[in-house]
Specification:
It is a single chain. By secondary structure, this protein is of the alpha+beta class. Helix content is about 60%, strand content about 15%. The protein has one domain (about 1-135). It is built from seven helices and five strands; from the N terminus they run E-H-E-H-E-H-E-E-H-H-H-H. The strands form two sheets. A three-stranded antiparallel sheet has the order 2-5-4. It has a two-stranded parallel sheet with strand order 1-3. It is globular.
Length: about 140
């Protein structure tokens, strides 16, 4: 049995969101969706996966990795953000490269990312389209 906890989900969600839009944080609701997608896809590969995001585990995460992440509150929810003195490159060796390759491939698979962060991807694509439209035409006439 494979357990996915906040220790696995939050840092890897931040890594993927950073690739999408440069973000350095994840709201817990988005992290849960990412965890559910991971569990579903791991199950397809034969890994019986249990998603564990209960409050006692998030408290443990905060103590264990407080040098890397800070809890923040937004509206009626909360999330975690990368500490100001840390970069994405600082967390990749700890939270991504230490994972078994077959499982790591699922963490950053296109389908998992698209299903987890649809809204963020759509916003980025819309922004890119607007930037193309607003970009001045540099061609000589």
């Amino acid at each position: 049995m494979l357990y996915l906890t906040v220790d696995d989900i939050v840092p890897n969600a931040i890594i993927e969101l950073n690739k999408i839009d440069g973000s350095r944080e994840v709201i817990i609701d988005d992290a849960k969706i990412y965890g559910e997608e991971l569990a579903k896809h791991l199950g397809k590969r034969g890994y019986y996966t249990l998603l564990k995001l209960n409050p006692s585990l998030t408290e443990s995460f905060e103590v264990k990795y407080g040098d890397f992440f800070q809890k923040y509150y937004q509206n009626d929810s909360y999330g975690y953000k990368l500490q100001e003195n840390k970069e994405i490159q600082d967390i990749i060796p700890i939270f991504r490269e230490s994972i078994n390759k077959e499982i790591r491939d699922i963490f950053d698979s296109e389908e998992v990312i698209e299903n987890s962060f649809k809204e963020r991807i759509t916003i980025k694509k819309e922004h890119q389209i607007k930037m193309k439209v607003l970009k001045p035409n540099n061609e000589k006439r």
